[in-house]
């Protein structure tokens, strides 16, 4: 399977793209000197030697802001993706394996929050937080609101695996619920869970960008969404200051596209129904 | 209730309706509780604005009027404030406030805006909603038709067309809507100046049903329209393409081919089966259209609901925020309910499962 995946050109393409942005975010600050405090020019100064992406509306080096934003956005995405995947997987596995009343209850809660739009809950939550909106908290909130579809999908698969012989054998041998769920059911779903994680990470990054564009972004850091928000609010678009928004737009698009490609290429490898 | 046993579909509908009512209650509770978690009281905000040039007696009178307006103090049948022994208004409990909020929301009364006091939230929404609907309804329907046609064609013909079309559709369906919007504003609105970049109509115009206004509005309509359309087409095409590829490989299609049934007839069978999930998607998209383009509207400064929410957020206008979010949630819930009922009527497999679970 892994070999097939590594031979798929679209997977390699997506992986290289995403890994590139990750590397840029991790190594960029180590190699280059960044400064998001110091003014280096006038507002919206066009790119000039030493500051290849110009300045923002405050006269701060755009390249430094961009790298900071990239780090923050990837951080939000990965934290939100991890939380959502963990919550969704555990709730889905537990409900699907246990069945009965516990399952009914968990399924009802899942379905309930599945139909209430995530962005709406995020808007209400973030708007009520006011001062306390840190980057980590936003990531956590996104994770806690997007787990539902994962739980539903994982539950369906766990419920079908429950009837397998090896699960029955494990139960006869007296293993506990946690043991059976984690060691006898979850291994079958690992590739699926990984694909879920990829999608949840992408949607986490986009969710953060969306609420930042609504003016509900983190107060303690600069994310790509917040750069866009500042640019839109401070007339970078109408001033024609492309360097203030185009690079951030491009980065978000590249991240979303690469994760999407990774997911679809993995699906075509792991899902035999779609295999040609 | 015995007769219900013989109407499994009807019984299913009633059960679903009850379930969606419960979901609605949860959504209303979220809308009520979350804005009240912060300590910003609407009266405090309004008083800070109003009390500057008032003497203390008028200021107190004004404050009491505000308190009554937002349902924070008890009011008797004649609209007079209920006062305690010290002459102070009696504050209502949170439970009573929730009951009031619920009954008013059910009657479509979403309260008073803080930022644009004394305008009603429902009035602000009524002015913004047509813009959102005019933007969303055509894009969703046209995008759905075009996307499904292209997707089905790509799955059926494969070859060069598919190899060119599929990556393009992947790209357009993966690009975040606001990224595409920003780039379109800059490229076609600012750089090339083909169309106006931001806004809904020319400055200085008043919305009215006149030719001059409609011409101006349709000119501003082009960019946001296409920025949403491209993405809807991409999404639908990808979904339809993979559905059709799956259907092409199923046993009934192979069997029909072996029987020598005419190609066009097989396509029709296949199309009907591939359509069901797509129809569901259409209904859900229509339900989500009220809140589906919030960010795009903000990018284009389009005078729809997105702009209303943005100004509400910037001004901590909680009644307006929760009015918009409640409207969006309710339309999504209604669409979901509709889809549930539609599927149980259309899909014989679901119908069968309702009979068997009796």
**CATH top-level class of chain A:** Mainly Alpha
Order of helices and strands of chain A: HHHHHHHHHHHH
CATH superfamily of chain A: MetI-like
Q: How far from one another are the termini of chain A? A: 15 Å
In the CATH hierarchy, the architecture of chain A is: Orthogonal Bundle
Q: Most extensive interface: pair and counts?
A: A-B, 40 and 53 residues
CATH topology term of chain A: MetI-like fold
Rg of chain A is 22 Å
Largest sheet of chain B: none
Using only C-alpha atoms, the radius of gyration of chain B works out to 26 Å
Helix share bin of chain A: over 70%
Throw out a few tags for this protein.
heterodimer, A: 276 residues, mainly alpha, MetI-like fold, B: 358 residues, flat
What does this structure look like?
The complex is a heterodimer of chains A (276) and B (358). Chain A has a single domain (69-268), classed as MetI-like fold. Helices cover 74% and strands 0% of the residues of chain A. Chain A has twelve helices and no strands. Chain A has helices at residues 2-7, 9-31, 62-98, 100-115, 118-129, 135-146, 148-161, 165-172, 177-213, 224-233, 236-239, 246-270. The longest helix of chain A has 37 residues, at 62-98. Chain B is mostly helical and 358 residues long. Chain B has helices at 8-33, 42-50, 56-69, 94-106, 121-157, 159-174, 177-191, 211-248, 251-258, 263-287, 289-292, 294-299, 305-314, 318-346, 348-356. In chain B, α5 packs across α14 (318-346). The longest helix of chain B is centred in the middle third of the chain and has 38 residues, at 211-248. The model of chain B has no long low-confidence stretch (mean pLDDT 81). Classes of the chains: A mainly alpha (276), B mainly alpha (358). Chains A and B meet through α5, α9 and α12 of A and α1, α6, α7, α8 and α12 of B.
């Amino acid at each position: 399977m892994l070999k097939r995946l590594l031979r798929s050109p679209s997977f390699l393409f997506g992986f290289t793209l995403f890994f590139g942005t990750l590397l840029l975010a991790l190594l960029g600050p180590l190699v280059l000197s960044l400064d998001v405090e110091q003014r280096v020019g006038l507002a919206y100064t066009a790119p000039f030697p030493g500051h290849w992406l110009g300045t923002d509306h405050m006269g701060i080096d755009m390249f430094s802001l961009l790298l900071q934003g990239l780090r923050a956005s990837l951080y939000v995405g990965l934290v939100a993706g991890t939380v959502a995947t963990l919550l969704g997987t555990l709730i889905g596995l537990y409900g699907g394996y246990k069945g009965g009343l516990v399952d009914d209850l968990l399924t009802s809660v899942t379905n309930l929050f599945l139909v209430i739009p995530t962005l709406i809950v995020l808007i209400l939550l973030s708007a009520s937080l006011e001062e306390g909106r840190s980057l980590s908290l936003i990531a956590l909130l996104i994770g806690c609101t997007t787990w539902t579809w994962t739980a539903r999908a994982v539950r369906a698969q766990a419920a079908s695996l429950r009837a397998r012989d090896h699960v029955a054998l494990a139960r006869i041998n007296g293993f506990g619920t946690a043991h059976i769920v984690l060691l006898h059911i979850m291994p079958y779903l690992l590739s699926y869970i990984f694909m879920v994680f990829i999608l949840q990470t992408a949607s986490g990054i986009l969710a953060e960008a969306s609420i930042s564009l609504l003016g509900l972004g983190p107060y303690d850091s600069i994310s790509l969404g917040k750069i866009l928000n500042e640019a839109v609010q401070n007339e970078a678009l109408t001033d024609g200051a492309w360097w203030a928004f185009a690079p951030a737009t491009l980065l978000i698009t590249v991240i979303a596209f690469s994760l999407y490609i990774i997911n679809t290429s993995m699906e075509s490898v792991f899902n035999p129904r779609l295999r040609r | 209730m015995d007769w219900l046993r013989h109407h499994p579909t009807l019984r299913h509908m009633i059960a679903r309706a009850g379930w969606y009512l419960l979901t609605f209650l949860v959504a209303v509770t979220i809308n009520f509780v979350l804005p009240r978690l912060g300590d910003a009281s609407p009266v405090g905000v309004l008083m800070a604005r109003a009390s500057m040039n008032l003497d203390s007696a008028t200021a107190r009178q004004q404050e009491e009027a505000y308190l009554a307006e937002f349902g924070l103090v008890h009011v008797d049948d004649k609209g007079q404030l209920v006062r305690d022994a010290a002459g102070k208004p009696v504050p209502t409990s949170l439970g009573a406030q929730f009951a009031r909020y619920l009954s008013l929301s059910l009657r479509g009364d979403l309260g008073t805006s803080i930022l644009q006091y004394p305008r009603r939230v429902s009035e602000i929404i009524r002015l913004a909603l047509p813009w959102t609907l005019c933007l969303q309804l055509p894009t969703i329907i046209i995008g759905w038709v075009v996307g499904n046609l292209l997707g089905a064609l790509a799955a059926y013909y494969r070859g060069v067309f598919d190899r060119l079309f599929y990556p393009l559709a992947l790209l357009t369906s993966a690009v975040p809507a606001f990224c595409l919007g920003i780039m379109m504003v800059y490229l076609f609105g600012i750089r090339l100046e083909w169309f106006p970049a931001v806004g809904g109509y020319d400055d200085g115009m008043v919305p009215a049903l006149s030719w001059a206004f409609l011409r101006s509005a349709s000119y501003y309509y082009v960019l946001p329209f296409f920025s949403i359309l491209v993405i809807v087409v991409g999404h639908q095409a990808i979904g339809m393409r993979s559905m059709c590829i799956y259907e092409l490989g199923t046993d009934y299609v192979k069997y029909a081919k072996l029987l020598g049934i005419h190609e066009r007839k097989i396509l029709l069978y296949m199309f009907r089966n591939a359509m069901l999930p797509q129809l569901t998607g259409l209904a859900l998209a229509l339900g989500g259209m009220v809140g589906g383009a919030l960010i795009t509207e903000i990018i284009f400064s389009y005078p729809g609901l997105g702009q209303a929410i943005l100004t509400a957020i910037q001004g901590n206008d909680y009644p307006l925020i929760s009015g918009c979010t409640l409207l969006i949630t309710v339309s999504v819930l209604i669409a979901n309910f509709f889809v549930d009922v539609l599927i149980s009527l259309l899909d014989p497999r679901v119908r069968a499962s309702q009979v068997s679970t009796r």
